[in-house]
Amino acid sequence: MIKLIECPRDAMQGISGFIDTAIKAAYINQLLEVGFDTIDFGSFVSPKAVPQMRDTAEVLELLDLHNSKSKLLAIVANVRGAQDALHFPEIDYLGFPLSVSETFQRRNTNASIAEAMVLVEEIQNLCEIKGKKQVVYLSMGFGNPYGDSYSPDLIAEFVEKLVLLGIETISLSDTIGIATPGLITELFKIQIETFPQIEFGAHLHSRPESISEKVCAGLKGGCKRFDGALKGFGGCPMAKDELVGNMATEVMIEKMESVGYSLGLNKPELAEAMKLTQFVFNP
């Protein structure tokens, strides 16, 4: 079964103009009607680092979860953020951005990789106490533009360490959109065969013309969990100056269905969500 993770948080976080809290909540409520496996809805991080997400707790209070099967995921970057997120029983997953690039880890979370691994362990312990799951995003998982070392073997070393900490879901992340279809297939195939107990996800950024081939590459490698954002909005403001958008969810859906996957989504509600994007992202 394919799991689609819709990421309005990622779509919104790089936008300079603040999106009204009520508008964010209305949009996420519409996404909750579609039937996505999970909604990556917000983050508990420093408002100075990501001003757009300073109202995540307020947004959460406005969400209508009663008729939705979707789970909620919030990004955290430290123990304090995890503790804040865990105050809310509605949140199912905490996502932590771990990088295989020392340069990007410091740029993204102001911590070294060694320090970030300690945080992963501490957050994992908190999640286990509260009955929550941690999703670790391995950013720069398909290449490194900063000159740090990179290889599929390096990814395996990180995964092995995370397995020992009890992590069950790892999303390989192409934060700047440089992954080739060949590497996507190879990396997922190797990691899934080596660590069959782990649920591997794909958090890929892409130019619009490359989305379909990257989806097919991930599927060919055995990936069954894909992150996306409607119309491909978003990108990591901590990476490069030029934001590379998320994988457009509607394009992924079309490609997956064209090759025979049934996703169980409510298409009329999806169409309504698509309409809302113009008000959310083009105020």
From TrEMBL:
Residues 1-271 form the Pyruvate carboxyltransferase domain. Keywords: Lyase, Metal-binding. The keyword NADP does not apply. InterPro entries: Aldolase_TIM, HMGL, PYR_CT. PROSITE patterns: PYR_CT (PS50991). The keyword Oxidoreductase does not apply. One of its GO terms (molecular function) is lyase activity. Belongs to the HMG-CoA lyase family. This is Hydroxymethylglutaryl-CoA lyase. It comes from Algoriphagus jejuensis.
